[in-house]
Design a protein that fits this description.
Layout lengths: L4 H9 L1 H15 L9 E6 L2 H7 L5 E7 L15 E4 L11 E7 L8 H11 E12 L21 H10 L2 E9 L8 H4 L2 H11 L6 E8 L23 H16 L8
Parallel strand pairs: 1-2, 1-4, 2-3, 4-5
Antiparallel strand pairs: 5-7, 6-7
């Protein structure tokens, strides 16, 4: 299940969330190759990093899963947010240069189908950048942060998923070496824990970040699949359709006064 959008916003507005955002930014900076005028899409909850890494992009879009919920972004100007299903993205083939997945892959119903859909919309030589909780890390064991929900991964599991979806892992990084404590005296030592963790316990990081390139030399079978989603018009009153159907049935049966009620 996805983390709720309200919980995600509250976490990243808290002191612990701001430290987590800073640590993940450092991890992404080491694997993020600058591409001027790129088309960038964030899937999941990637707003803090879209604002930082999407400054030079031609366009940046924020795709948020329907089960998570969405917020308007950016705060000023036209909205670039869309509520989507991660297995059926509203994009044409080869239309995006880079996709950033944060709080996404660990919550998907079928990670392979999600990565296949990401492969479809990426341009040739496009990149996907993924941030997932590390199954060996401490953050995946505490549910008071968004990294304690969903399915954590190891490097080997992520690498296997990427290769099955025709991606080649190009660069790896890690983040969140400090404990997910909400006590302020612990958060004061965040920089000390980060620097020490990178040297002494790198395999126990809180998140794993990987950049992978779309692979084109391997043939991919193309098959049209029907959507498994059931769409419900949430803005129409639930009883309105049923009442209208009852009126039609009464009129067809010749019930007196049925059209006047």
């Amino acid at each position: 299940m996805h983390s709720d959008i309200v919980d995600l916003r509250s976490f990243y507005a808290s002191p612990l969330g701001q430290l987590a955002e800073r640590s993940i930014t450092m991890a992404l900076s080491s694997i993020w190759a600058s591409v001027p005028n790129e088309r960038l899409v964030g899937l999941g909850y990637a707003l803090p990093w879209l604002e930082r890494f999407g400054a030079d992009a031609e366009r940046a879009l924020a795709f948020m899963p329907a089960t998570q919920g969405a917020v308007v972004w950016p705060p000023a100007g036209p909205s670039a947010t869309a509520l989507v299903f991660d297995e059926e993205l509203p994009l044409v083939d080869s239309s995006i240069d880079r996709m950033l997945l944060v709080h996404s892959l660990e919550h998907t119903e079928n990670p392979r189908e999600t990565l296949n859909e990401v492969w479809r919309v990426l341009a040739p030589a496009g990149h996907v950048v993924i941030v997932v909780p590390n199954r060996r890390g401490v953050w995946a064991r505490f549910e008071h942060t968004p990294f304690g929900t969903g399915r954590p991964y190891s490097r080997g599991q992520i690498a296997e998923l990427l290769r099955e979806a025709n991606f080649t892992p190009a660069a790896w990084s890690d983040g969140l070496y400090f404990p997910p404590s909400q006590r302020r005296f612990m958060m004061r030592f965040q920089s000390l824990f980060e620097s020490a963790g990178r040297r002494m316990w790198p395999i126990f990081s809180g998140v794993i970040a990987v950049s992978a390139q779309k692979r084109l030399y391997q043939g991919v079978p193309v098959a049209q699949r029907a959507s498994r989603r059931v769409f419900v018009p949430v803005f129409s009153p639930q009883g309105a359709t049923r009442l209208g159907r009852r009126r039609q049935d009464n009129g067809a049966l010749g019930v007196p006064g049925a059209e006047r009620r």
